[in-house]
Write a structure and sequence with these properties.
This protein is α/β, with parallel strands linked by helices. The longest helix is centred in the last third of the chain and has 40 residues, at about 635-670. The radius of gyration is 30 Å and the shape is flat. The relative contact order is 0.07.
Amino acid sequence: MNSPPAVPVTLAEIARLAGVGRAAVSNWRRRHDTFPPRIGGTDASPHFSLTDIEMWLRDNGKRGKGRSREWLWPRFEALGDRDETGLAIAAVGRLLAGEQNDGDGSGGAAPAPGPVRAAVELGRREGSSEVLMFLLRRWLDTHVRQIPTTPEPLADLMADLALRTCKPFVGGHPDDPLRVLDPACGVGNLLAAAATAVPTELNRPAALLGCDRDPVLTALADVRLALLPGPETRGLAPVMTPGDSLRADPLIGTQADMVLCNPPANERDWGYEDLAADTRWAHGTPPRTEPELAWVQHCLSRLRPGGSAVLLLPPTVAARKAGRRIRRSLLRTGALRAVVALPPGSAAPHSLSLHLWVLRRPAPGEGPQGPGEFLFVDAAARFPRSTARDSGPDWGELGAFIRSVVGAAGGARRGRATEESGAIVWAATVPVIDLLDDEVDLTPGRHTTSASGHAGPRLAAGWREVGELLDGLRAESASLAALELALGREGQPSATVAELARAEALTLRSGRLPDEAVVPEPGRARVPLLTISDLLLDVSPSGWAYPDDAVVVEPGDVVVVGVAREFSAWVHEGPPMAVGSQIHALRVDPDVLDPWFVAGSLKAPTNARHAGTHASSSSRIDVRRLQVRRIELPEQQRYSEAFRHLAAFERLADRLRIVAKAVGQDLSDELAAGHLA
């Protein structure tokens, strides 16, 4: 009988399994002749047999303690493609959920694959939900580009908004379960949020229903929700069904109290030809270019009277010309109650200010026109990025703001509540009749600015910062202008970075990307990961790395970017940070070199031209060829002081540009609105 193929692991994975740094594993490989041989990969990234590595670590007393879950993942990853691995994780969940229900979970099924059995055994010891969620997060992180998910803080917010706007007891008993539907459920993030929110807010169980066209995601959502810790569903089994909710809804006839949905965006082949006469289109047949409005009407059709829906949609849905007839009908009937603009970075795609649409099916006695007023919330303006490097919102502040605006009684009254609390600058209630113009543009920014008229505090703060920045620039410019330059002096001897490294005056480390995506683990610290993409987009470090698997810069290290387009060098002053490929870290010997002198010298444009590989902006800089003048340490420190002032001058100038632009935009809005006294 053939033995199963070896499970490959990289040096970084071995380090994680052993609970040590990658350098330690490389050292073991050099020092120990018994270290297992390479079975594949490349010289730069060799692969080893997981079984051989496990035996070697155990025999040499180096197997990490308390890392049982880490040993699971390589075996699952080796099962095959995305779907095969996902189904194996779902099998783990089914077996663990079956044990909770019938004792052993076997049910007479065929023997499970080895990794599945190992995961079930670990789940018995460490907790079913904990082990399943570890595997699920690893799987999602590995396939993050293929499987978009709703971030958990946003899912919690959407569930809370739906609860605040629905009337859960219409036509039923207060102890009846609240039916929550997600017609594009993915792995169930929105339903998991509702499962926690409903019992907390209403003290009644949640009946969870979901559907997704990807059967692997549906299977994972089913077991993930079945293993939710605590009494969230009070014994009610979730109903997750594979299928296309628009083309052939397997949950047809469902009437839910709440619908939460993050539907696929910008799909052209959503079933336009097949669904032209569908009865769900009560507000008009969605044009081919408006798939999101098809999802909006589908969600409305699945609500019972008094029920509410919250959808996450692209901002263009609020303004596209093709959808104005449907938007007009949604407003006239009171089905659409509010639009909330979220700050960029709230969810993928992170560059967009996505919108939350809050919908409601009128309850008996409310009348078909709804409250007659519409709520706009511009949280994107309330929480702007102070710099383009801000990677995402503060969910605590953002969620509290939106919840305070929306309130508890209904869309229109929530808008008036914001006026009393001073939040009217970023929110407005507008009579529906005023929105029924030729465009029916429901973009919050178009309506909240005219309602605010209270940019005074923001402008005053902006002008104060402009003044402080100008004072700082004047001080730094005075220091720099006072420098006397000995122009025409002959060049002094210099040394390249490579020569300084050989002389042990500094150490050069080149950054790298992790071998695999980093999954948050309790008790294991992570550091931000700066990449070339972050620098090109001018955003904060967008990734994470474990310190033992990455090149980490500490305060006082010199960071050098090795791409001509973004070439720069600076002294790192913040908390530890990992650097990706084409970003380099220099750690100088303080008895020989001053870091500010080194960074300032390396950053000189002439230095980059000499060390560049060719003239295009995409060329690389050979960091080893960058030069630093050979001068004594006291003289370096004299130059270091000047370089510090120059760095401060450039930093203040960059900040002034950002603040001046924001002040100019606010002032332009006020002048255009006729607010000149």
